[in-house]
Amino acid sequence: MVNFEQVKLLEAKVVKAIEHIERINKEKNALLQQDTELRGRVESYQKQESELKARLESYQKQESELKARLESYQKQESELQTRLESYKTRIDELEVLVTRFKEDQGKIEESILSALDRLNQFERDIEKSLKEKSDDKADLSTAEQTENQSTVISELENDSDLDDSDTEEPIEEPIIDEEHWDDIPDPLVDTASQEQSDETKNGELDIF
Hints:
With about 210 residues, this protein is mostly helical. It has 2 helices and no strands.
């Protein structure tokens, strides 16, 4: 038969078993609760991880775009630098050309002024020479006219003396109208005038 002590021992064991089961249930519930919390955290972490991955992809995409822009800007900078160097070289060449042009312009102006001075001196010399030739020809023409008049008068006087000695009859001397004497064309004067006109034309041609 079962005695009282055995019953008490069994009851004590049952109580311990019940307490142990309750403790296990509490621990189980706690573990379940922790598991639920952990699952929630895991889901939250997974969601955050997805968001972070999306952000990372966006940042990587932005990084790629920024790299492409940077390369484009570097290329443009290189082209602008090349253009700037080309412009600087062109500016230097233009400055040299401007300096040479100024120097050449000064020389050209001096040459033009010198040529004008020589041209003016040449014109004065030609005018002086033509005037001297004209004066000389006028004096020569006057002397020839006087000599011709003297010759004609001498011949007329000689003819008159011969007639007087042969016929001894008075012969009227030819009347020379001095007013119309100048109307008689002098071939020497006409020739001198023609030569002067030709020399004037030649002088004008030489000037131009």
